[in-house]
Amino acid sequence: MAIWFEAARPRTLPAAIAPVLVGSALAVHEGVFSTGAAGLCLAFALLVQIGTNLANDYYDFVRGADTAARVGPRRAVAAGLVAPAMMKRVMLAVFATAFFSGLGLMAWGGPWMLAVGVASILAGVAYTGGPWPLAYHGLGDVFVFLFFGLVAVGGTFFVQAQRLTMEALLAGVPVGLLAANILVVNNYRDAETDAAAGKRTLVVRFGRGAARAQFSGSLAVALVIPLVFFSRGHSAWCCLPCLVAPAAIAHVRRLRQSKTPGELIALLGATGRLLALYALLFSAGLIA
Q1: What is the model's pTM?
Q2: pLDDT tens digits for the chain (288 residues)?
Q3: Cys bridge to 237: 31, 58, 205, 288, which one at CB 3.0-4.6 A?
Q4: For domain 2-287, which architecture applies?
């Protein structure tokens, strides 16, 4: 169980929880919150995140991106803890469970939820698998921004409100950007081994300087979005996420000054925690 818990990569799970929190908080603000719909959204998001992580473990090993030279946290297949065939079977089982849990959302969101659910699962597999893996062509960041930001926040709100608003999409922007920052730190650490394996992430393509600019810019935009909500008539409480600004500045400094894989692994966890805190504060502000 400890091996599978590690393979699920709990440090990345805030990326699945945060959009459901924010989308549900916006539903509370609009007076349309549904406990059942929100619960199913959370279950689906967590299962897709875990399935994507297991797929990444399997496909990165098969493609040679995860080897003994890896400097980050160990991967179950590459470390010999789980047989590749077993990892693939469990990955498929998790995605199947996500699919069937997501079917329940059709009771609220109609047939659109089937399309969104299938697209989310296919994207989770295609992130590192399939004939044209997204992460290997520098599109991993776009995938995370879209599916863990706009789609997840907008979809969570949609199934409860039966409509999609500009505010729901706008609320997904900072969540998606901060979720993508988790990937930035991960790829920043693995740049050399990714390049050797032909994994052309944005860090490999454009260098660490561009990655630092992306990381900093995403944090800046995330801190501005609550002010946009305030300007659109929301209460001043929606500006609560601005309280994370000192931590955000510290993270930019840590990324720039990092010298060892251990420092980046610690920053990876801190980036996930920042997303979780931002989502909690933003949700509280929207409800207030």
Answers
A1: 0.92
A2: 899 999 998 888 989 999 999 999 999 999 999 999 999 999 999 999 999 999 999 998 888 766 656 666 788 898 889 999 999 999 999 999 999 999 999 999 888 899 999 999 999 999 988 888 998 999 999 999 999 999 999 999 999 999 999 999 999 999 999 999 999 999 999 898 888 888 899 999 999 999 999 999 999 999 999 999 999 999 999 999 999 999 999 999 999 999 898 899 999 999 999 999 999 999 999 998
A3: 288
A4: Orthogonal Bundle (1.10)
Q: Which tokens in the block code for residue 256? A: 């720039």
Residue ranges of the domains in the chain?
A: 2-287
DSSP string, 175-225: HHHHHHHHHHHHHHHTHHHHHHTT---HHHHH-HHHHHHHHHHHHHHHHHH
> What one-letter code names the amino acid at 167?
E
Query: Using CA atoms, how far apart are residues 220 and 8, in angstroms rounded to an integer?
Result: 30
Alpha carbon distance 5, 185 (integer Å): 21
Measured N-to-C along each axis, helices 151-161 and 35-62 cross at an angle, to the nearest 10 degrees, of 150
